[in-house]
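Case study 2.
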Amino acid sequence: MTIVQGIEARGMQHCETTALGVLLRHEGLDLSEPMLFGLGSGLSFVYWDGKGMPFPFLGGRVKPFELTRNLAARLGLTLTVAETTSPRRAWQNVAAAIDAGRPVGLQLDSFHLDYFRSRVHFGGHVVAMYGYDEHDAYLVDTDQQGGTVRTGLAALAAARAERGPMTARNRSFTLTLPSRPPAWQDQLVPAIRGCAEAFLAAPIANLGHRGIAKAGKQVPGWLRRAGEPRRDLPHAAMLMERGGTGGALFRALYRDFLGECAGLIGDERLRAGQRLYAEAAVLWTQVSALIAKAGESGDADCLEQAGAVLEELSRIEHDAMQVLRTL
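Prediction:
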């Protein structure tokens, strides 16, 4: 058995911030989950209904691994990434880091992991690996997946090699702090402004505040769009509220990030943005509840209500980001 010593195997709400927390705490930098999410400019929105998709997807964050890249760039971290199509090389990349006493992040498809409760393909899942023996890999995943967990080596290899939407080619990564501790407090305003500008300047109507408005127009037709409404709508609602989002489609995490920032930076614009995202978080939870109720009852009025709330959310988040971009 090979185990990295000194690992604080603390699970969080979201997979990528959970893994980042493990890697950075091992390097000596302990930041809260909302702070990791916010410094990585993680908040976004996408309404995705691609050809061949069984049901639309509402996403509330930037694409997988972009948060990690953003965070590393903001804090001046050395991000070392390895990708390969070779299973043998993929294992060597991971084992070499662990043998050297360093935890390693992995992007993989959660469908294959032995401990996962929901067998659904999701190629953007991220875990931290801190050890292995001849049978199992030792991982840290989110609280809802068990925190400190194990999976068989064959299952891990299959999860890493899976191809499809959001997957990577056996991606593994490590983070190294600079010789002088990063002044992360100096990066709060740039991270907030960068997130706001990207959200407001989204290039297509499926993204950002325009994407939320589009969802407001499309969601009322979801009973007709669904193959199995009693399955599809509650599942979509579950992903919004409990699918590793931290609640309210990541808006609760961003609300708490802005709250932490407001305690460090005395700027009324920051407090105004935080208040607006606190309002948005409540409304996103309301939307998910209405979508779930529509699927369970077949009542289209619930989806009409959800659409109206989404229209309001588009306005609220637009106003919040307009304020925050002026910091």
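The first helix runs from residue 15 to 27.
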